Amino acid sequence: MNNITGIATDAQPFIIMAYSLGALALLGYAHWCLLQRVKLRQLVAAVQQPHSAAIPPI
Amino acid sequence: MITAEDRRELYLGAILLAMVVGHWLAAFYYAPVDEHQGEVYRIMFLHVPSAITAFASSAALAVFSVLGLKQRSEGSLALAKATAEVGLLFTVLTLATGSIWGRPTWGTWWTWDARLTTTFLLALLYCGYLLLYAAMPAGPSRIRACAVLGILIFADVPIIYKSVTWWRTLHQPPSMLRAGGSTMEPEILWTLVLGMVILCLYGAWLIRFRSRNIRLADTLEAASFDQLQT
Amino acid sequence: MMNSPFWRHYRTLVSQGIQAELADLERLVSPVLFALTTLLLFAFAIGDVEPALRVHIYLAETFLTALFALQINFSRLFEPDRQDRVFDLMRTYPVDHTAWFLAKYTLVLAMGSATLGPTLAFAAFVNQSPSQPLFSWVVVGVAAMALAGLAALGVLLSAMTLKANARQILYPLLYFPLATPVLLAAVQSSQLYLSSGQITADVRAWLGLLLGFDVIYITLGALLFTELVDES
Q1: Percent of chain B scored above 90 by pLDDT?
Q2: Number of domain units in chain B
Q3: At B132, which helix (H) or strand (E)?
Q4: pTM value?
Q5: What is the nearest CA distance from A55 to chain B, expressed in angstroms?
Q6: Which residues constitute the domain of residue B210?
Q7: Does the beta carbon of C200 lie under 8 angstroms from any beta carbon of chain B?
Q8: DSSP one-letter string for B26-57
């Protein structure tokens, strides 16, 4: 039976390293894009409001 | 502050991310142990799909570049730029996981293996694309120049696949696409294929999400400029 | 046929380009001096080489030096056209864009040959040993094939980066990764030939790859250059 706790100890560090990097890359980039989207929506809404102060582009 | 459209995009992203996690679980629970490499081979289920996504991104970059040349629109350039970023992300992930897999398998973190080396080249090309985008002022010249470079980058991809059969290499000879069929066990093969499809879909979602951010930034810049004019 | 507008444009642009190059001899001399200096630096850095490694080291440093020196030729190709906005005026003028590309390609082949020739000769000269002749017309032929592909790439990249900031660093960052397959094929085919003394199947395979890339880069170069300079 294959289970993660049954992985030989010498392979564990490498598997953990690889999949942690994968999670960081895939989640990290998506998260950065999401934060950027939220900020952009705020800025666009603020600029498009009438008589709002000019907001420098990012 | 996000719109309903943004929410729909995020739900789709969450679903795809859940599929990625599900695939990783299948990589550990469903795929059997490899008789030669033991458990450490499971890194392959992240490494190979990342590589496929990285190379597929170069094809997508070429498509958006051709569209950019035909339409001369900022929209296709935004898609192309997002594709280069996502392509770079997956190329770096491929190299990193390849290096980590190489240590217990080949005894070394890095070797000038043909496929790893040319994947490194692809990463440099993506960096070059992003540098060119940053170095040129917005306008038709940038659309054209970036489009031409995107097509040139795609032209480099065939040698990445061809070189593995022409150079002496530590890398696996092609296990899937070879005469006589695959040498992999069916469970491993199907888990791998599933991973490729899911990660490519997730990469496509990242490209779309990021390109919309780029277009929003363009809108913001135009709106700010209009504000300054009034 | 030779008096068609295409060939008239081509001849005019080639002769104009040659005059621009000859007007400033520094543009021809400095890449050659750079190549000779680089070869000397390699010689100092590498030092005495075991006979078994001599061929490989010679080819590696020769083709690398050629790649670096040719980059200088290529990156400065459109500099005369930047003066007085000649490049922008040419884009609006009814000149055949393919003829324009071919003219620049011919020019860069000529300039590249003027750099490559002395580089190959000097490299064979400083690396020679009594027991191991290094100069070979086959290697010169391989270098010429490599130049054919690199020149097309050089014209395209030069036109692409003409309006970019930090061109001096951006150009090599784009050029070197794209040129690496050509470098690889040239070194591998030359090394296999010099080691065995004959054109084996492996040598032919690498030459085939080099030829393939020449065709790809020249074709893409002609097609994409016209898209790049098209005003519409």
Answers
A1: 55
A2: 1
A3: helix B114-135
A4: 0.88
A5: 6
A6: 14-170+188-215
A7: no
A8: HHHHTSPPBTTTBGGGGGHHHHHHHHHHHHHH
Q: How many domains in chain C?
A: 1
- ipTM for the predicted complex comes to 0.87
| CATH number for the domain harbouring residue B98 | 1.20.120
Measured from the Cβ of residue C160, the count of other Cβ atoms closer than 10 Å reads 25
The per-residue pLDDT for C39 is 92
Tokens of C29: 């001399």
Tell whether B152 lies on the interface with C, counting CB pairs under 8 A: yes
Task: Determine, yes or no, domain membership for B83.
Answer: yes
pLDDT band for position B174 (cuts 50, 70, 90): low
The label of the residue with tokens 């007007």 reads C23
| Secondary structure, 3-state, chain C | CCCCHHHHHHHHHHHHHHHHHHHCCHHHHHHHHHHHHHHHHHHHHHCCCCHHHHHHHHHHHHHHHHHHHHHHHHHCCCHHHHHHHHHHHHHHCCCCHHHHHHHHHHHHHHHHHHHHHHHHHHHHHHHCECCECCCCHHHHHHHHHHHHHHHHHHHHHHHHCCCCCCHHHHHHHHHHHHHHHHHHHHHHHHHHHHHHCCCCHHHHHHHHHHHHHHHHHHHHHHHHHHHHHCCC
CB A43 within 8 A of CB B220: yes
In a domain, residue B229? The reply is no
CB atoms within 10 A of CB C26: 8
Crossing angle of helices B4-29 and A12-48, rounded to 10°: 180
For residue B227, is it within any domain?
no
For residue C221, what are the domain limits? 5-229
The answer to whether B23 contacts chain A (CB < 8 Å) is no
Residues of chain C predicted below pLDDT 70: 1, 231-232
- Which residues does residue C132 pair with via DSSP β-bridges, in sequence order? C129
Q: Using a CB–CB cutoff of 8 Å, tell me whether B38 touches chain A.
A: yes
Residue B177 lies in a domain: no
Contacts of B166 in chain C (CB under 8 A): 205-206, 209
